[in-house]
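Hi everyone,

Forwarding the result from last night's run.
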Amino acid sequence: MSNKKIEYVIRIGTYDRYRHLHIKEKGKIVFFRVQYETKIADKWYPVVRYDTSHGFAHRDIINKKGNIKKTPLFNQDYNDALTFAENDLKSNWEYYKKRFLEEEL
């Protein structure tokens, strides 16, 4: 059985988008990366990203300079972690955007 890769981007605001990538094998998520991005002066900036790129599910909060604050997720089942990440970004993107825009550098 081969891996199934799903990837898409959806607009969630006038200058905001949600990027999604996950790989599923035998009904289980084996890798994911979901990210909220905002557009400022014709450039897309990553604001919050959830992924499994370091071998564990975690959230990265990114500032305008590109500095990252990494927080591990307690739930290491990737299916559940992906569901949590999707819900968080789609429900709280406006909060994350406000925080990103107001943050002092």
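Residues 15 and 42 are 9 Å apart (CA to CA).

Cheers,
N.
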